[in-house]
Write a structure and sequence with these properties.
277 residues; D-Maltodextrin-Binding Protein, domain 2; elongated
Length: 277
C-alpha cells in the first residue's frame, strides 16, 4: 500500500476515534448516573425507605400501632405504584435532613415546607400540597388576645417544634416574644394546656383541631393561617432521575384528583380521629 494512502487511512481512523470517544464517555456517564440514582436502588432493593416524623394529621400512630395520615397515604400509594415495599423510618424532625444525607432512608415526607435554607442541603420535588402556620392560644394566659400583634410582646411566651417552619414563622411574626422550642408537638401542647405559655404555633390544621378538642382551655385568636408554604418531598442532591420520577408521579396524582381527595379526608374531616390512641 502506498505510504500516502496508508497515512490517509490512519488519519481517518484517528479522527473517527476522536469523534466517537466523547459519545462513548457520555453514554457511560449516563448509565453510571442512572445506576447510582436512588430510584434505581429502590427498584433493585424492592423497598422504598421513607424518613418522617409525626405531625397531626400528616403522620400519626393509630390504636394498633400502625402509622396513618396524609403523608402515610401518599408514600404508601407511591410505593404501590413503583411496585416496591414500604419501609417507614421514624426520625427526630431536628435531625431528619442529616439522616437523609447519611443515607438512612431514600426520601423525606412529613409536610416539609420548601425553604431556601433547606434547599441548600437537599433537592425538593415540585410541591404536592400547600400548608400554612396557625396559632392556638390558652384561654387562661392569653385571655382577651384577638390579633397577631397581641402576641408580639416581651411578656408573651410562644412554643413551637424545634427545626420546623412554625418555629421560623414564630421568630418572624413575634420577634419580641419569648420562643420556647421542643422536639415534639405533644410537648408543645402540654406546655399550652398546662397554662405555662401563651400560644403554640404549628402547621394547620393542628391548631384548629386542638382548639376544638379542648374548648374549655384553648381558642383560636385568629382564624385560618397567617402564612402559605409549598410542601414537597426532599431527596439528596445530584439525582435527576429520582426527581423526574417523583415529579411526574405528583403530576399524575394531581391530575387524577387523588391528592385532593386524600387531603380532604385528612384535613377537612375528623373521621380518622377515632382511629388514634
Amino acid at each position: 500500500m502506498p505510504l500516502r494512502i496508508a497515512s490517509t487511512l490512519l488519519f481517518a481512523a484517528l479522527l473517527l476515534a476522536c469523534l466517537l470517544l466523547p459519545q462513548a464517555h457520555a453514554k457511560d456517564a449516563t448509565h453510571a448516573l442512572r445506576d447510582a440514582s436512588v430510584i434505581s436502588k429502590v427498584l433493585e432493593r424492592g423497598t422504598l425507605r421513607v424518613g418522617f416524623s409525626t405531625f397531626v394529621p400528616w403522620a400519626m400512630t393509630d390504636k394498633t400501632g400502625e402509622y396513618i395520615g396524609f403523608e402515610v397515604d401518599v408514600m404508601t400509594q407511591l410505593a404501590q405504584d413503583l411496585g416496591v415495599r414500604m419501609e417507614f423510618v421514624p426520625t427526630s424532625w431536628s435531625g431528619i435532613i442529616p439522616a437523609l444525607l447519611s443515607d438512612k432512608f431514600d426520601v423525606i415526607i412529613g409536610g416539609m415546607s420548601v425553604t431556601t435554607e433547606r434547599n441548600m442541603k437537599v433537592n425538593f420535588t415540585i410541591p404536592y400540597d400547600t400548608t400554612g402556620m396557625a396559632l392556638v392560644a390558652s384561654k387562661t394566659t392569653a385571655a382577651g388576645f384577638d390579633s397577631l400583634d397581641d402576641f408580639n410582646s416581651q411578656d408573651v411566651i410562644i412554643v413551637a417544634r424545634i427545626g420546623s417552619t412554625p418555629a421560623t414563622a414564630a421568630k418572624q411574626f413575634f420577634p419580641k416574644a419569648t420562643l420556647r422550642l421542643f422536639d415534639k408537638e405533644t410537648q408543645c401542647m402540654q406546655e399550652l394546656l398546662s397554662g405555662r405559655v401563651h400560644a403554640f404555633v404549628a402547621s394547620a390544621p393542628l391548631p384548629a383541631h386542638s382548639a376544638a378538642e379542648h374548648p374549655d382551655k384553648l381558642f383560636m385568636p385568629v382564624q385560618g393561617t397567617f402564612t402559605s408554604e409549598p410542601v414537597a418531598f426532599a431527596v439528596r442532591k445530584g439525582d435527576p432521575d429520582t426527581l423526574n420520577v417523583l415529579d411526574n408521579w405528583i403530576r399524575q396524582k394531581e391530575a387524577q384528583g387523588w391528592l385532593a381527595e386524600r387531603k380532604h379526608y385528612w384535613f377537612e374531616t375528623v373521621e380518622w380521629a377515632a382511629r388514634l390512641k
